[in-house]
């Protein structure tokens, strides 16, 4: 029963959150902490921190971690399925119609207006991230060169992220060696 | 074959998808449009608009959409679960290790190094979308500038902005 309830809670969250992972924090908190009392507030914020630190989809990380906390492996799986199924169903239905819809001139005109909006919607979180990452005049070359390498040379962002992780580890070694 | 490609593409994106949905969207775009050329830049932009407007995480929506257009029902299932698989594996690992080490410099510093790179990557994803198929008239520039301003100044709701842009695009072509 608990497994089913967990599935259903995350299914509702997946089906009704618009606007990305961060919009769903409030809904998850309502479902897990306030409504069902599956965990207390501290545990909840701990799970947010972890879900943000890990790579991958924030909502899925949240579901996996809280599901595990509430009912182990089964809970993890139920929560993950619940969080991803609404997307699968909704997008499959839309995608199967979209090709035909695109034949209509009205639809094409509407999307000609939407495209520049979407491009801007992508760039803005990047600009905000510059602030969150404490980028200053001395470190501005990092996002700039990442951006140029990707745009001009088509280098996969995966390699750049790997390089950043390696640089971070090496510099940690270096700094801790110097401290001794 | 296509299923294996979908698995490979989305597994890697799930594994290196630090920095939230928009970072992953930029990665998906580079694989799908530039690398594998499964769809055109314009088709991908439309797909993104739909992923943004529908409920659920944008990266899951985009993965499902790409999978469906490339290989139907099974394709979308493969793409979506490949995107989630690294999370499952890492979560198992992290439940055992993370809480012991989250204050460690070996966790904190690589994270701090990664953030500026991720910012550059998200911006690159946006810049790559700015091509001739996106900017078709003066209206496109107005919409682009207006969206950036509305988001930065008032944190305007993205779905509302998409709807307004769609109406403007429709009205512009009436005359």
Straight-line distance between termini of chain A: 55 Å
Strand content of chain B: under 5%
Query: What is the residue-averaged pLDDT of chain A?
Result: 85
| Coarse morphology of chain A | flat
**Number of H/I helices of chain A:** 7
The beta-strand count of chain A equals: 0
End-to-end distance of chain B: 47 Å
Number of structural domains of chain B: 2
Order of SSEs of chain A, N→C? HHHHHHH
Largest sheet of chain A: none
Low-confidence stretches of chain B: none
| Helicity range of chain B | over 70%
Kindly describe this structure.
- The complex is a heterodimer of chains A (180) and B (175).
- Chain A has 180 residues and is an all-alpha fold.
- Chain A folds into two domains: 2-101, no CATH class; 133-179.
- Chain A is built from seven helices and no strands.
- Chain A has helices at residues 2-16, 25-35, 41-53, 58-101, 105-132, 141-153, 157-179.
- The mean pLDDT of chain A is 85.
- By secondary structure, chain B is mostly helical.
- Chain B has two domains: 2-101 and 111-131, no CATH class; 135-175, no CATH class.
- Chain B is built from seven helices and no strands.
- In chain B, helix 6 runs antiparallel to helix 7.
- The mean pLDDT of chain B is 88.
- The interface between A and B is large, with 92 and 110 residues.
Quick tags:
A: 2 domains; 7 helices; B: 175 residues; mainly alpha; 0% strand
Layout of strands and helices, then pairs:
The complex is a heterodimer of chains A (180) and B (175).
Chain A lengths: L1 H15 L8 H11 L5 H13 L4 H44 L3 H28 L8 H13 L3 H23 L1
Helix pairs in contact in A: 1-4, 3-4
Chain B lengths: L1 H15 L4 H15 L5 H13 L4 H44 L3 H25 L8 H17 L3 H15 L3
Helix pairs in contact in B: 1-2, 1-4, 2-4, 2-5, 3-4, 6-7
């Amino acid at each position: 029963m608990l497994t089913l309830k967990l599935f259903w809670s995350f299914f509702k969250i997946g089906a009704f959150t618009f606007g990305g992972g961060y919009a769903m924090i409030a809904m998850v908190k309502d479902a897990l902490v306030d409504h069902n009392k599956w965990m207390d507030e501290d545990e909840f914020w701990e799970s947010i921190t972890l879900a943000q630190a890990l790579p991958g989809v924030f909502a899925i990380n949240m579901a996996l971690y809280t599901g595990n906390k509430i009912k182990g492996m089964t809970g993890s799986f139920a929560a993950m399925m619940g969080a991803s199924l609404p997307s699968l169903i909704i997008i499959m239905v839309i995608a199967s119609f979209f090709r035909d819809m695109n034949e209509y001139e009205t639809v094409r005109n509407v999307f000609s207006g939407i495209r520049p909006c979407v491009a801007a919607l992508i760039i803005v979180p990047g600009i905000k991230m510059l602030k969150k990452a404490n980028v200053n005049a001395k470190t501005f070359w990092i996002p700039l060169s990442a951006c140029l390498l990707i745009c001009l040379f088509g280098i996969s962002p995966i390699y750049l992220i790997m390089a950043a992780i390696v640089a971070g580890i090496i510099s940690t070694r270096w700094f801790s060696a110097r401290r001794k | 074959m296509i299923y294996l490609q979908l698995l490979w593409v989305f597994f890697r994106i799930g594994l290196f998808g630090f920095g939230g949905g928009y970072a992953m969207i930029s990665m998906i775009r580079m694989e799908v449009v530039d690398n594998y050329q499964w769809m055109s830049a314009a088709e991908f932009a439309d797909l993104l608009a739909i992923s943004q407007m529908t409920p659920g995480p944008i990266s899951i929506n985009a993965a499902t959409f790409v999978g469906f257009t490339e290989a139907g029902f099974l394709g979308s299932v493969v793409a979506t679960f490949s995107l989630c698989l690294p999370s499952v594996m890492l979560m198992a690992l992290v439940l055992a290790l993370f809480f012991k080490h989250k204050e460690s410099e070996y966790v904190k510093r690589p994270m701090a190094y990664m953030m500026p790179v991720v910012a550059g990557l998200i911006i690159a994803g946006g810049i790559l979308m700015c091509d001739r198929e996106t900017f078709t008239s003066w209206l496109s520039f107005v919409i682009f500038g207006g969206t950036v301003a509305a988001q930065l100044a008032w944190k305007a709701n993205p779905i509302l902005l998409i709807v307004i842009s769609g109406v403007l695009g429709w009205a512009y072509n009436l005359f």
